[in-house]
Amino acid sequence: MTQPRHPSPAPPTLLPLLLTLLATVVIALGSLWSLWYLPFLCGLALGAVTALRGQRARTAVLTATTAALAGWAAPLLWRTATGEAVAGTARTLAALAGLPPLASLMITATLLISLLQALLGVWLARTTTATLHPTP
């Protein structure tokens, strides 16, 4: 008696990696040009693409969060490396907001805002795509 053949798992695609890299570059360039809303738009695009391709929500979430955090962290690091006063500005902003004047607090808040934008974009795109394009 022969064992039934199980289909081999699908080979991992490079699409999530390519989408992550593309979204990271778009968000980073947008951050340099003061387009603060690009993590949301990239989250929308990533959520829609992954939903239409039938990929898991986990893929969309990981792709969007990685792109959002790296996309906003890279320009901050670049500006710091080129001598701009990123830490000083963050400390001043924290003090004006009535918070302890810690640069790390405001930089963390900035990255969390980017993360939330991307997650909200993924959520909106996946729920809209599921509503407009129901799977059988």
Observed structural traits:
single chain, mainly alpha, 0% strand, elongated, 5 helices, 136 residues
Q: What is the chain-wise order of helices and strands?
A: HHHHH
**Radius of gyration from CA coordinates:** 19 Å
Q: Whole-number average pLDDT?
A: 89
The rounded distance between the terminal residues' Cα atoms is 36 Å
Q: Given the C-alpha coordinates, what overall shape results?
A: elongated
Helix content: over 70%
Major β-sheet annotation: none
**Tally of alpha and pi helices:** 5
Structural class based on helices, strands and sheet pairing = mainly alpha
Strand content: under 5%
Poorly predicted tracts of residues = none
Strand tally: 0
Description:
By secondary structure, this protein is mostly helical. The protein contains five helices and no strands. The chain has helices at 15-32, 38-52, 57-81, 86-96, 103-132. Helix 1 packs antiparallel against helix 2 (38-52). It is elongated. The chain starts with 14 loop residues before the first helix and ends with a helix. The mean pLDDT is 89.
Write the layout of secondary structure elements.
Layout: H1 15-32, H2 38-52, H3 57-81, H4 86-96, H5 103-132
Kindly summarize this structure in a few lines:
By secondary structure, the protein is an all-alpha fold. The chain contains five helices and no strands.
